[in-house]
Specification:
heterodimer; A: 480 residues; alpha+beta; 13 helices; 36% helix; B: 146 residues; Immunoglobulin-like; five-stranded mixed sheet; 19% helix; globular
């Protein structure tokens, strides 16, 4: 068989569920990459993935302590990532609507209308209207800023002018620009504590510098006093005199510049590689789980009975559990827990009395990737009966050898009869409840004793209003 | 096979016992004259015993050693209004082992049935005394022990 034949056979043996499984999980992995790339969360996730990988290697090489330590760090890291980066995760998920989470790409996200922004900013500067515009980077700044009022309006010249109009209650705060929308207005920013600022820098300048210093955001402000445009990013803060220069800064920050076409192409290529890598990774994981070396396992699984007529009881079964032989890939078999496997028998067609059922794959419920091989025994007998109550006389089961010269002539029982519960068909053949064996060797004179009842056949029970013991008062006489 | 032989031997003993009970009946009644007796059939005595001598049950009891070899169920009726019959049904652990039909003659009658004891007979027994219609007149419960 050629390699091509083998490859063809391999793909032919895949079920539609396998294809769906790989596709779905590849897409989930890919979306996680798209949503979190460039963030600290992503970097830590990659770190944890590497730790897990090294831990598996350590396990396979038999490094007990190393694998144990790595396992602990990985487990703790998974929890810590949620706790420490909860804000960053939330901002990623909150910033995008459902469509954005499931489908959108950062490249295709509503692009900021840079020309409108630039023109409006210089218009605001010309009018000596103070304004603060925040263009977030990758980092979360929710903990840094305060008092934002949700706006979520599409950017337009008029809207920006009206936000920073002096009579507008929110004009003193900053506006957060994301994509082609103004997300929030009236946002309060932290003030920079730098000492090297020129004396004419006011609160707005210090606020712009404060946010730029603590996050990777770009902040653009217009000076109310001087009527100029200032940009702040990182530790840089400076006047931008020309619109082209401001447009260039915005393009660079948002990754949309025409000159950056090469960068966009690179980014698109990166996403394609990520998509392929996701498929490849999930495919490898799927293959290792489902097509690894086949392993057999035998589990003792209790039988569950379904759809029993409520008026009928299971009186007896030939077996309580079956021995199931299952097959699957090593990792899946290793991870298999007995409670994941069910053996169920449908009693809806069963009749009163003895029923014989064959156990086959249709009776066995298995997790994905685990397959039925054999069951032992393949047949189970189930006796069904209608539960009834019956009053039955009690008889003492005397045993042993009576001492010479005496005989037991009478025994009075209290109670003389008991209520028992059991199957109707079973109780049809039972007319006496016997006591446990009562030895007679030590009996010398009339006396009394308390003895237990022996409930046979199995399945017979004493009704709640009856006792499971009887008092036996016996009379002894000499032999004639 | 072994069970079948055991059953045949048992039935043989039962047949012998029936002839034995008939013998007692004739001894008790002498020449049989059937005068009509008033009232209804009444069981006046029913006991399990080791043997019956002179129409009297000997060593009645409820526990018998298998070593005595044979036990009897003795029943006495007075009056017997008309010629009829009764049954002695022997049960070993709730399982009917034999049913014996015994004739009763007016005006009163005593009759018995017996079984030979074997090692396998150890355990709880009962004998149900029923009339010709199957009504239980009395149940005698006893055990065969070592």
């Amino acid at each position: 068989m050629t390699t091509m034949d083998k490859l063809f056979l391999f793909f032919a043996s895949m079920r539609w569920q396998d294809v769906f499984d790989i596709t779905l999980n590849s897409y989930i992995l890919f979306r996680l990459y798209v949503l979190f790339r460039g963030t600290n969360v992503f970097r830590v996730l990659v770190g944890i993935a590497f730790l897990w990988f090294f831990q598996r290697i350590a396990v396979s090489l038999g490094f007990i302590v190393t694998s144990w330590v790595l396992q602990g760090i990985t487990a703790a890291g998974a929890i810590l990532i949620i706790v420490i980066f909860r804000n960053e995760i939330r901002s990623v998920l909150q910033a995008k609507n459902l469509k954005g989470i499931l489908w959108g790409f950062p490249l295709r996200a509503g692009q900021a209308p840079i020309e409108i922004i630039v023109d409006t900013v210089y218009e605001l500067a010309r009018r000596h209207c103070g304004a603060l515009l925040i263009f977030p980077g990758k980092e979360d700044f929710e903990d840094v800023v305060q008092s934002g009022i949700p706006w979520r309006g599409l950017i337009s010249r008029e809207m920006l002018l009206s936000i920073f109009w002096q009579d507008n209650p929110v004009h003193d705060g900053a506006a957060i620009i994301q994509g082609n929308r103004v997300e929030e207005v009236g946002v309060l920013l932290p003030l920079s504590q730098r000492k090297d600022f020129p004396s004419y820098y006011g609160t707005r300048h210090r606020a712009a510098a404060g946010l730029a210093e603590t996050t990777d955001s770009l902040v653009i402000l217009t000076s109310e006093e001087r009527g100029n445009v200032v940009a702040a990013r990182g530790s840089f803060i400076g006047v931008i005199d020309r619109k082209e220069e401001l447009a260039q800064i915005l393009h660079q920050h948002l990754g949309t510049t025409a000159r950056e076409t090469g960068h966009a192409k690179k980014e698109r290529l990166e996403i394609w590689i990520a998509a392929l890598a996701s498929i490849l990774l999930i495919g490898v994981v799927w293959f290792s789980f489902s097509r690894g070396l086949e392993t057999l396992i035998t589990l003792e699984i209790p039988i569950e009975y379904m759809n029993r007529d409520p008026g009928v009881e299971i009186l007896d079964t030939s077996i309580d559990s079956v021995s199931l032989q299952l097959r699957g890939s090593g990792p899946l078999i290793k991870a298999l827990r007995p409670e994941q496997v069910k053996v169920r028998l449908d009693l809806s067609d069963a009749s009163l009395g003895l029923n014989t059922f064959s156990i086959g794959p249709e009776n066995v419920s298995l997790p994905p990737g685990i397959f039925f091989k054999k069951v032992e025994p393949p047949v189970v007998e189930v006796t069904l009966d209608v539960p009834i109550e019956k009053v039955l006389p009690v008889q003492v089961d005397w045993t042993g050898k009576l001492p010479e010269g005496i005989r037991i002539v009478e025994a009075r029982l209290d109670p003389a009869a008991v209520h028992v519960k059991g199957g109707k068909r079973m109780l049809e053949n039972v007319s006496t409840i016997f006591t446990d064996a009562v030895p007679v060797e030590d009996i010398r004179k009339s006396d009394s004793m308390t003895v237990n009842l022996a409930l046979t056949p199995a399945g017979l029970t004493i009704a709640p209003d009856s006792q499971d013991k009887v008092k036996v008062k016996y009379v002894v006489q000499g032999r004639q | 096979m072994r069970l079948r032989i055991t059953t045949l031997v048992f039935l043989l003993f039962v047949c012998l016992d029936l002839s034995f009970s008939a013998q007692i009946r004739s001894q008790e009644n002498g020449t049989h004259t059937p005068p009509p007796a008033p009232g209804k059939l009444t069981l006046v005595a029913a006991v399990m015993c080791e043997k019956v001598d002179e129409y009297t049950p000997r060593n009645p009891g409820i526990v018998f050693s298998v070593n005595i070899g044979k036990i009897s169920c003795f029943t006495s009726f007075d009056p017997v209004p008309e010629d009829t019959f009764i049954y002695h049904k022997w049960f070993y652990r709730d399982e009917l082992t034999t049913r014996l039909k015994l004739s009763l003659k007016t005006p009163r009658w005593s009759t018995l049935s017996s079984i030979q004891l074997r090692e396998a007979d150890k355990g709880p027994w009962r004998v149900e005394v029923t009339d010709s219609d199957g009504n239980t007149l009395q149940t005698l419960r006893f055990s065969i022990t070592d």
